[in-house]
Amino acid sequence: MSRERIRAQDWILVCDGSKALLLRNDGDAQDFNLVEVRTTINEGAATHDLGDDRPGRVYGSVSGIRSAVEAPDLHDRAEQAFLAGVAAEVDSDIASGAVKRLLLIAPPRAMGFLRSHLKPASTSAIVAEIAKDFTKMPVPEIESRLRAFNQ
After folding, report:
1. What gap in Å lies between CA 13 and CA 86, rounded to an integer?
2. Would you say residue 106 lies in a domain?
3. Looking at the 3D structure of the chain, how many domains does it have?
4. What range defines the domain where residue 31 resides?
5. pTM for the full predicted model
6. Which long-range contacts (CB under 8 A, 24 or more apart) does 87-93 make?
7. Has residue 80 been placed in a domain?
8. Would you say residue 88 lies in a domain?
9. Is 126 in contact with 111 (CB distance < 8 Å)?
10. pLDDT tens per residue across span 60-78
11. Beta strand 57-59 with 66-68: parallel, antiparallel or unpaired?
């Protein structure tokens, strides 16, 4: 995706599989003033709360030999469900006209999952993507990193 400068009133989505931070730039292209619009947190449940699936078994049709099947990663499923919900929220924000331009910041795996769940109108609103994890940074640190991106 091409790299475009961040402007006034652009929205920035910073997320990973456990936290999504939606920011708006109330400043301009040179002097950012990122304002937190919404924070969504995936309360990481304990594995026993997510489910107790045991690995499945497969029986050979001819020989009758049994084999174990890999158990599903329940935490991975919870993260994917969280990211699908974030994508739905962004779709809604863009459809309502609240968001015109969006910068997406997420680790590569989360970025790919988000992209695959966003509607075409939302993907066309994305002006730039940064494949990094900024979710644990305070907003002033995110501003600092984005200033370097904007130059």
Report:
1. 10
2. yes
3. 1
4. 11-41+73-150
5. 0.80
6. 87/114, 87/117, 87/118, 87/122, 88/117, 89/20, 89/22, 89/38, 89/40, 90/13, 90/22, 90/114, 90/118, 90/122, 91/118, 91/119, 91/121, 91/122, 93/11, 93/22
7. yes
8. yes
9. no
10. 666 667 666 566 667 788 8
11. antiparallel
